[in-house]
Structure of MFS transporter:
Amino acid sequence: MSSRTGRRAERDAGKAPVPADRGRAAARRSPGTASRAPGDGTASADRRPTAAEPPGGARAWAVWGTAVVVYFMAMFHRNGMSAAALMAQERFDAGATLLSMLPVLQLVVYVAFQIPGGVLADRLGPRGSLLIGLGAMVGGSALFAVAPTIQVAIAGRVLIGFGDALVFLNVIRLGALWFPRREYAVVSALTGLVGGLGQVASVAPLSALLRGVGWTPTFLAASGVTALLVVLVLLLVRDRPAGFPAPGRAERISVRASIGEALRERGPRVGMAHHAVAMTPFTMLAVLWGYPLLERGAGLDPGTAGMLFTAAALAPMVLVPFLARLTGARPGLRKPLALTLAWTVSLGWLAVVAWPGGLPPLWATATVIVVSAAGAVIAPSVSFDYARDGMPAQRTGVAAALVNMSGFGTVVLATTAAGALLDAQGGPTGGPAFQVAFVPLVAMALTAAAVLTVLLRRYPRRTADGG
């Protein structure tokens, strides 16, 4: 089969999936055809027929489990500024706009490295990429711990952002390389759930540590725990199951061509729109403004604010594995789930900012935060599943990177705009100030929800067997 024919077949397979039993029968009828590495979609010199998909099983869960612990720690580092925001403001004598630069520059680096990170995931492999990311986070957290000035602290957060950029894509990549497609939604959702637990650990527990042992010991300890994960990745993580050939002979195209290829397919564009609306509000709260919103906006004491934010993040997590397994078994549910999440989250925040006389009652604000947390932890199982539709399997890294860029680019804009608007009003002085500050977030969420609705009109259904 020529390379051009092979590429056309891969694209067609993404748009009109072939049932797994028919694919296996074709493989048996054509033993002389170059085999394709399951999960990679790459040509191999090995002409022995291989299984159509990775087998999954205990070894796959061990590999993914190690990688997802790395993601947990990356989320802890990424979102630690929410609990540390007010202490950082005092430590570095910084206003709201300058303070927002700590997480925002970290996220800018994170977003900027999504495409290079996606290319690295496709070419170097998940294991090597995770090791590079861990090394950067170890150094960044240590630098942040001992930073004497805001400028040095920002440098530490930039290093963390670079390391963080290499983690999630490779955890998702390992899920695609080690598990069959029918289990991918569950693995993606569990990845989001573990990330949500990392967010939780960065609020109340981190706040308690900061108050108990202080700034430097807390963040040095986080650096040390991250260093231990380097050893675990070296020992346990492998790029693909034994017997599945490496993608050494896969055709490589330019980064520009990879981006164009992904943007021409509707699946990645749907994933981008969904990620922008479903994960942005809670992520913005987690990286910086959630804790101040509850403490300064709703008037709660620090301990209660931390516990409430933690409970709001934990509450929806029990539903995530169930919903993911349901969508994995019944792919037709992706569309209603995506639209329901998008409009519920965006309209919920519209109600918060439009509530007359200040923030809504605490129960209503907490409900919107819980719904947003549900959107953030469910978003990966939907957004990244859509991102694979129509894409050659060996180039899903770039499509996933675009989806992640869309979500976190929106987070950067919303977080920065909130800081600027708070400063313009004299700081985070109360509920009305936060209502004004969150108007840009609501505008972006409503826009993304509308784009998602248009893109999902007449979207082809995916079968449980196929891509």
